[in-house]
Amino acid sequence: MKLLHISDLHFHRDLQNNIAADELLGTISQRYPKHTLIITGDISDDGTPWQFENAFRALESFVGRVFIAPGNHDFGSAGNFYSQERALRFDQMLSNPLRQGGTFTGDTTPVVNFVRDGNDQVMLIALDTNLETEHPFDFACGELGVSQLAALNTILCNPANATYTKVLFFHHHPFIHNDPFMELKDAEELMRTIYGRVDVVLFGHKHVVGEWHGLCRTKLILASDDSPDKDWAKEIDIQGKTITVTPVWIRPGASRPSAPASARASKASASIKSGKEREVNVRDAAARP
Ligand SMILES: [Fe+2]
Ligand SMILES: [Fe+2]
Fold first, then answer.
1. Distance 150 CA to ligand 1 centre (A)
2. pTM of the predicted model, to two decimals?
3. pLDDT score of 46 more than 50
4. Nearest ligand, CA 142
5. What is the Å distance from ligand 1's center to 112 Cα?
6. What is the CATH classification number for the domain harbouring 82?
7. Residue 113 maps to a domain
8. Domain range holding 170?
9. Which residues surround ligand 1, an ion (CB under 5 A)?
10. In this predicted structure, what is the pLDDT of residue 260?
């Protein structure tokens, strides 16, 4: 089974500002027609009805193979502050019509989908990492909360789910530390909850790619950049217990650049690294993700 991870589409109201996102999804539709598409949040830029409408139009043809999580820009204007109105709109205009099998607003239950392809059985677990706050110092921070983590723990403990390959995805980057404007406040609690019990973790928010193997006893952890206008996205190939990640070209047109040096396929290893692969803070006030 092949997954394709993209993120941070930031759909706008003005169609001219959506050309790159529309081209990206058109290219994926043609070039990767069987892939399961995972989008890790910031699908819209401000959570307005027009932005969600444009995003839905671009994603409608993927129903059944697209799975989404909300970002801070979906639940707040310019990614700032939580807005229940916008959060409800995300569910009404994206989660429900894109048939996610669950919603993200208010409740604290992960949205779970089971995908089967031959002998491969994959459990897709989407989390809402948006912090429900209007405090100015929280800005673009995230939080899962005690009850969502407890619900996640219950899912991971369920023996009925033991045979599934588990793919966890959400918006906020869990390896940003000591940044009061960007961090996932309960990232350590999340990592403690999933330690050795999840196969793949995917997220966005920082608009910078990252790849970790074996960290927190997780086979593969990927951070996506903001995908529109980018050349590459990550394909995750799940074959039984073997998970391979490969950069795949996502630009329209026939001329294909050579893959970057870091863009070789790699098998997810079960080895455990030191846990020191943490990234330093990124404080780019001009381009808040
Ligand atoms: Fe974000
Ligand atoms: Fe973003």
1. 24
2. 0.91
3. yes
4. 1
5. 22
6. 3.60.21.10
7. yes
8. 2-267
9. 42, 71-72, 205, 289
10. 64
